[in-house]
Design brief:
heterodimer, A: alpha+beta, Phenylalanyl-tRNA Synthetase, Chain B, domain 1, OB fold (Dihydrolipoamide Acetyltransferase, E2P), 6 domains, seven-stranded antiparallel β-sheet, 42 strands, B: alpha+beta, 2 domains, seven-stranded mixed β-sheet, two-stranded antiparallel sheet, ligase (chain B), catalytic activity, acting on a protein (chain B), aminoacyl-trna synthetase (chain B)
């Protein structure tokens, strides 16, 4: 809502600098987008009179104009505007003037002829395209004939007015009008308002029924009023009206349309004007659209109506979408002589639905959606009718045609001083609060019990409950004046839940292990959402996605990390180690909402460590990532972790993937991404893991218990076993552990060899077995006996050879 | 020459020899040569037979003195040579201390996580619980329980990704508050919570908009919670995140779930309120929205609005991070460029 302080001064005397006023509004009522004065930055732009206009000798579209700018001699100015003509008052930018966009105008020559300045269009002096009257849209502007030659143009065009652009929140629709804003300022500054009202109309109320007979269902239009103005001449509005409109951001059109817009701005009351001659029959009906009905609206769009749309219909069918947009068939135009003016209150939720469905959000629909002042529906209609009659040399036909008219009363809200102070944390006195209410134009009485009975006038329809009154007190009293304290009351413990601490611990563990946290998008493509999945799930899709890249909620984290890695490697960052902790969304068929499961995933590519002067580079590989996962699971206290050769992960390398289990519970997987998938993402070899953190949270955990450290020495035995390639390390370790006596405390693989020094199809695994007794020094004999016994069994179990 | 003179002469020569030796290995040879059974002292002492008996003790004592003196001289020389040897060895071991150290490979928490963690820490310390909730929500909790019925004009303020008519990607973390309020047992004390998490809006991604971002919303419900308490809490928050010297100011605003509703500005941390590009010359930066919980919200959650009341606030960690670290494009947070992520490694 663009508010001109000059217009405001019709209603309230403030004498406050516009910036200061804007600041006050912002601190007390609604946000201010900006404060502007159109003349700012412009200079030497004056009224000129085109004494003579002749063709430029060297051009077919330029003209030489002799322009009187109030100096001894007229200036010769070359003008290319198609509508340039002699005998007009025009906007002249003198030599060395400054026009919009900080452009300087200089004396110069155009095709051999001197040009001493420029004749300007409104756009050239800073008017937005959207507010320039259509007749001047393609050319220069003509000022009123009585404009004084040589004077600055700014006052004629309202360009010295300060305009405060309010960003009105949905609850403060009362400020979507000049009068509403004036009420607000009167409260803020504790001033008296002087609102003007239309003159009482002495008329024969029955006359109007000869023209129209409106009917309406009260649930569609609680108030529906019409007036008729006859013998109207359609013409441009006077300058003062055009100025008010364009300073409010509305394009002047003609005296009929301009008056409806003017009243809309002044009262916040949307009006609609029909051309009486184009209406079929006298009966005007406010009703819901019938199945199959169509309407061509003012924007020349044919709209299929639904039975939830409120329409205004004449005897031939719909003529307007109520409160949203008029129809083309009955629109007022240059030849209109009899105007039917509508002023109404339509059902807000119906208007909202219609505006949304037809994507027709207009100044009118916005106000009907948010509410309007029900007390001035008739007054706004009368004011508009009188102004149309005045500006169009017409006559208001006697009487308002009333289809419905609701009775509008003030609303009573009760609140105690204690409640106000309890909520705000203040110690306001009865008088202070009463004064605030009074300033707001509320009528207050105080009951014997100290309760305020507050009468809220209809122009503040946003106020209906005590909390609303508390807000009014708080903002007028001033938020700066509130004390700053902390909640008292009973103490409560603040701590993470077990789940929250595991999530956070997992993140920190991976960071310590060298992975950086990524946060990727939860919405991805249909394909990526379903990659790397750990359990079967239906996909969950957006009903109306914004782009094909974000259509489906993810069912894995890895695909997001691969996107991230691809982003990095595309920018020549080749060594990347990322992890993400977030949710995946699994949905079972028949459920609408998915289950949200906390997952943890990591992805690495390139080098983990670069070559340095100190040591050789360390490329990322399976075992590096496995070590990290082992460290993670161990640190989270997960018992009995097993890595099993995995099959069935479509997106993973079939020979380099392990499923991860803890005591038969599937936790996730780890391995190298399938080369084909890497290709799709444009990646080099990449290693990934993904774990179900929820599963890990629910597992029973190891509890650290003190065990005494043995004081007796360890004895070790090393052995290298030649076994078939297919034999897995885990099987051998498990076997040795199972078959050894109680003194075996550790089995550690320390070498793996495949190559020239071993038979084809074989590999050598070298283990160090450590023996220890808690209570005594072990003898070599005991250890040797146990070791040899186990090795005999290993040889036969694995067809192994001891090397 | 009598024995004593010979011993004196011997001592002189031996001490000269000891002083001149510069090889640690030769020290022992000299010791054996001088003090051993075949050494000159032993040799001299053999001549004691020819010394008159009354003089023998004197000569003997002198001989012992010489022996002790030489022993000490040898030990001292040996120690000195050892020091020299060590010094030489260490000198050879000199390294270039300006060569780079072996890098410790660690990852970093995401900057958004760091901001959230900072906020969590503050509120845990003030006795708040941290509550998580679903990212895919019911319209009922996301909007209706927040006093935003289906045709409410304020729904235009948030464009929503719907999955079905009733199911959506949450546009705010307030549905977590609605769910928590419904369940909270007020006989066990007040409700004090924050709910951090991801939210989604139907927006086209650009430098200042992201279809995915984060929120932390806070809620306190008790019998006597005031707007002054809200102001004090937010002041504490602003000072924790943006620095001890920060002031806040409240401006009227509108959220359907609070009444009164306020926007909260913090005094500019770049220019201390003097006016700069960050605060667009106003000295203040809008950082969050807040208000006193709307009685309808309490009623819908089954809480007696005549007895209980409270405050709520909501902030965007993305915006906080952008302001605090001067990040000028919100998309940076979700592209995960390692060179971006690793800039925020300072701890403590």
């Amino acid at each position: 809502m663009k508010v001109s302080t000059k217009w405001l001064s019709d209603y309230i005397t403030l004498e406050i600098a516009p910036q200061e006023l804007a600041e006050k509004i912002e601190r007390t009522a609604v946000e201010v987008d900006e404060v502007t004065r159109m003349s700012t930055g412009l200079k030497k732009i004056v009224v000129g009179f085109t004494k003579e206009v002749t063709q430029h000798p060297e051009s077919d579209h330029l003209h030489l104009c002799q322009v009187d700018v109030g100096e001894a001699e007229p200036l010769q100015i070359i003008c290319g505007a198609p509508n340039i003509t002699a005998g007009k008052k025009v906007i002249v930018a003198l030599p060395n003037s400054r026009i919009a966009g900080n452009v300087k105008i200089k004396r110069g020559k155009l095709r051999g002829e001197l040009s001493e300045g420029m004749i300007c269009s409104l756009q050239e002096i800073g008017f937005a395209e959207g507010v320039v009257p259509k007749e001047f849209a393609e050319g220069i502007y003509f000022l009123p004939d009585d404009a004084h030659v040589g004077e600055p143009v700014f006052d004629y065009l309202g360009m010295n007015e300060d305009v405060i652009d309010l960003d009105v929140t949905p609850n403060r629709a009362d400020m979507l009008s000049m009068r509403g804003t004036a009420y607000e300022l009167a409260a803020i500054y504790n001033k008296k308002l002087t609102l003007h009202h239309p003159a009482p109309m002495t008329e024969n109320p029955a006359e109007v029924s000869a023209y129209i007979k409106p009917t309406a269902a009260p649930e569609l239009a609680s108030t529906y009023l019409m007036r008729v103005i006859k013998d109207v001449t359609v013409k441009p509005s006077p300058q003062w009206l055009q100025t008010r409109l364009w300073n409010a951001g509305i394009r002047p059109t003609n005296n009929l349309v301009d008056v409806t817009n003017y009243i809309l701005l002044d009262y916040g009351q949307p009006l609609h004007a029909f051309d009486q001659d184009k209406l079929v029959g006298k009966n005007i009906q406010v009703r819901l659209a019938k199945p199959g009905e169509k309407l061509i609206t003012l924007d020349e769009q044919e709209r299929e109506l639904r039975t939830t749309d409120i329409v205004i219909a004449d005897e031939a069918g719909p003529v307007a979408l109520a409160g949203t947009m008029g129809g083309l068939r009955t629109a007022v135009g240059p030849n209109t002589t009899t105007v039917v003016l509508e002023s109404a209150v339509f059902d807000s939720s119906a208007i909202r639905k219609t505006a949304r469905r037809h994507n027709l959000h207009s100044e009118a629909s916005m106000r009907f959606e948010r509410g309007i002042n029900r007390a001035t529906v008739a007054e706004a209609l009368d004011a508009a009718a009188q102004l149309i009659a005045q500006l169009g040399d017409g006559t208001v036909v006697g009487g308002r045609a009333v289809a419905t008219k609701e009775e509008v009363n003030s609303v009573s809200v009760a609140i105690s001083l204690k409640k106000i102070n309890d909520v705000l944390g203040t110690k306001l006195s009865m008088e202070t609060v009463k004064d605030i209410f009074t300033r707001l134009d509320f009528t207050v009485s105080v009951s014997a019990a100290g309760q305020f009975e507050v009468q809220i006038p209809p122009h503040r329809w946003d106020i209906s409950i005590p909390a609303d009154l508390i807000e009014e007190v708080a903002r007028i009293y001033g938020y700066d004046n509130l004390p700053a304290t902390l909640p008292k009351g009973e103490l409560t413990p603040g701590h993470y839940t077990y789940k929250q601490s595991v999530l956070r611990a997992a993140r920190r563990l991976l960071e310590e292990a060298g992975l950086t946290q990524a946060i990727s998008y939860g919405l991805t493509t249909h394909e990526k959402a379903a990659q790397f999945m750990m359990e079967a799930s239906e996909e969950t899709k957006l009903a109306f996605p914004m782009s094909s890249d974000r259509t489906t909620v993810r069912m894995n984290l890895i695909s997001g990390l691969l996107d991230d890695i691809a982003y990095n490697t595309a920018r020549k960052v080749n060594n990347v180690a990322l992890y993400e902790q977030g949710r995946v969304f699994y949905r079972s068929a028949g459920n609408v909402r998915p289950r949200e499961v906390e997952h943890l995933a990591g992805a690495m590519t390139g080098l983990f460590r670069n070559d340095t002067w100190y040591g050789a580079k360390q490329p990322v590989d399976f075992y590096l990532l496995k070590g990290i996962v082992e460290h993670l699971l161990n640190s989270l206290g997960v018992k009995d972790v097993q890595f099993k050769t995995a099959t069935g992960h479509e997106e993973m390398h079939p020979g380099r993937t392990a499923d991860i289990y803890a005591a038969d519970k599937f936790l996730g997987f780890l391995g190298e991404v399938h080369p084909n998938i890497c290709k799709e993402y444009a990646l080099k070899a990449t290693y990934v893991f993904e774990l179900d953190l929820q599963q890990i949270i629910e597992l029973p955990k190891k509890q650290a218990v003190y065990t005494p450290v043995s004081r007796y020495p360890e004895i070790t035995r090393d052995v290298a076993l030649a076994v078939d390639q297919e034999v897995e390390n885990a099987a051998i370790v498990d076997f040795i552990n199972a078959k050894s006596g109680k003194y075996l405390v550790n089995v550690e693989l320390f070498d793996v060899y495949e190559g020239a020094h071993i038979a084809p199809g074989k590999k050598s695994l070298a283990y160090k077995l450590t023996y220890q007794d808690e209570n005594t020094t072990l003898s070599d004999e005991v250890v040797t006996a146990d070791f040899e016994k186990v090795m005999t069994k290993v040889k036969s179990e694995f067809n192994a050879e001891i090397r | 020459m009598d024995l004593k003179e010979r011993l004196s002469e011997l001592k002189k020569d031996a001490l000269a020899e000891i002083t001149n030796v510069d090889d640690l290995k030769k020290i022992n040879d000299i010791r054996v040569k001088l003090l051993g059974k075949k050494g000159p002292i032993t040799e001299v002492l053999r001549g004691m037979r020819d010394v008159p008996a009354d003089q023998r003790p004197r000569i003997g004592s002198f001989a012992n003195t010489v022996r002790d003196e030489l022993t000490r001289a040898l030990a001292a020389r040996k120690e000195k040579l050892e020091i020299i040897k060590t010094a030489k060895k260490l000198e050879k071991e000199k390294i270039d201390v300006t060569l780079p150290g072996v890098a410790v490979k660690v990852g970093q928490p995401h900057i958004i996580e760091q901001v959230i963690a900072q906020i969590e820490k503050l509120f845990l310390g003030m006795g708040y619980q941290i509550v998580d909730g679903p990212e895919i929500e019911e319209d009922h909790y996301n909007f209706e329980m927040m006093n935003l019925p289906k045709d409410h004009p304020a729904r235009d303020m948030q464009d929503t990704f719907y999955i079905t008519d009733q199911i959506l990607m949450r546009t705010q973390t307030s549905p977590v508050q609605a769910r928590t309020m419904e369940k909270h047992d007020f006989t066990k004390g007040p409700l004090k919570m924050i709910s951090p998490g991801k939210v989604y809006r139907r927006d086209t991604d650009d430098a200042t908009h992201s279809h995915q971002f984060h929120q932390v919303e806070g809620l306190v419900i008790d019998k006597h919670v005031t707007m002054a308490d809200l102001k004090g809490t937010l002041q504490t928050l602003a000072r924790t995140i943006f620095g001890e010297k920060r002031e806040i100011r409240l401006r009227p605003s509108y959220f359907p779930f609070t009444e009164p509703s306020v926007e909260v500005d913090v005094s500019c941390f770049k220019c201390d309120g003097q006016g700069c590009a960050v605060c667009k010359q106003t000295g203040w930066i809008e950082v969050l929205g807040a208000g006193m919980v709307h009685p309808n919200v309490l009623k819908m959650a089954g809480i007696d609005a005549d007895v209980y009341g409270g405050f709520a606030f909501g902030l965007g960690p993305d915006r906080f991070a952008m302001l605090k670290y001067g990040v000028d494009d919100i998309r940076e947070f979700y592209l995960n460029d390692v060179r971006f992520l690793q800039q925020f490694s300072q701890k403590g």
